[in-house]
Every structure is written in structure tokens, then in C-alpha cells.
Amino acid sequence: MDCKSKNIHYTETELMLLAQLISEEKDIENKRTGATDLKSKAEAWERIVKRYCSEGCTPRTSKQLKKCWDNMKQKYSIFYC
């Protein structure tokens, strides 16, 4: 996937969609770090990327979406209580 969207800000709609998609993926917030856990997390992120891009949002990589999610958790602690 092309990374031309690096400097494009996330819209409120994109942020809400990302939060919804992550809430549907139980593996994302799993704190375990075993090989199988990391693999299932990576697969979950790829599913999120596919669904995110299919909704007509600005194409993003899993790395970009992970960073956005981490920033959202820090900014809005209600997501991560």
C-alpha cells in the first residue's frame, strides 16, 4: 500500500470507524506477547486495514492505524480503562 497519506489528518468519521473496528477485534488489546498472540494481533490489524479502506477512508497502513490508536488511547483514556 502506498504511504502518500502520511500527512493527511484523520477525520472524526475515520477515528470513529477505527474505534468501532478495533472494538470488534478481541485480539488487539490482548496483552500477551507469545508468538501465536503476536500473529493473531497482526492478522487482526490486517483485517482492520482492509475494512477501514473498504469504507472509502483515506488508505492507511497497519502501522499508521496502530499509531493513531495508540494516540487515541493516550488522548482519550476512556477507550483504555
Q: What is the chain-wise order of helices and strands?
A: HHH
| Beta-strand residue fraction | under 5%
Oligomer: single chain
* Distance N to C terminus: 33 Å
Question: How would you characterize this protein structure?
Answer:
With 81 residues, this protein is an all-alpha fold. It has one domain (10-79). It has 3 helices and no strands. It starts with 11 loop residues before the first helix and ends in a 6-residue tail after the last helix.
Give a brief description.
With 81 residues, the chain is mainly alpha-helical. The chain is built from 3 helices and no strands.
List keywords for this structure.
57% helix, 0% strand, 81 residues, mainly alpha
Give the topology, please.
Elements: H1 12-23, H2 35-54, H3 62-75
Subunit structure: Self-associates forming complexes of several hundred monomers.
Keywords: Transcription, Transcription regulation
Organism: Lasius platythorax
